[in-house]
Amino acid sequence: MRDVVVPAPRCLYADDYIQHNPNIPQGRDVLQRLVETLSPSVHYEPGLIIAEGDLVAIHGRIRSWADEPQIVVDIFRVEGSKLVEHWDVLQNEVPVTAGVAGLAMFDPEESASRAGQ
Q: What is the DSSP string of 70-101?
């Protein structure tokens, strides 16, 4: 899997890629170096995907990026076949048993469960 993931920024992201995450420097080359240095234990699970116009939002869970699993919403702006701009929001995952609402923050099947609506 690492062989597939590592070249992804060069293939998927525009040369002048814009990054809005304050903890990641600008540019596709910086993103490439970041991906190359990720631990093989880092795992991203996409869930619900929403697209409108040139924007795509993905609700997902990422493990081993931080000390605790995180729930993330990534928003990408797309031009042609390239990702040109990115925003994200990350939050540590709270177990269902610890949440007041009693609902999971993320369900990898959430997209499939909405397909018939």
A: EEEEEEEEEETTEEEEEEEEEEE---GGGSSS
44-93 pLDDT per residue, tens: 999 999 999 999 999 999 999 899 999 999 999 999 999 999 999 999 99
What lies within 8 Å, CB to CB, of 105 at 6+ separation is 71, 91, 93, 94, 99
Q: Can you tell me which residue has the tokens 């993330």? A: 72
- Residue 64: φ, ψ to 5°: 70, 10
Given a contact cutoff of 8 angstroms between Cβ atoms, the answer to whether 51 and 98 are in contact is: no
pTM of this structure? 0.83
Q: Are 60 and 44 in contact (CB under 8 A)?
A: yes
Q: Are 91 and 71 contacting, i.e. CB atoms less than 8 angstroms apart?
A: yes
Per DSSP bridges, beta strands 82-92 and 70-79 are antiparallel
Reference 82, options 36, 20, 17; nearest CA is 17
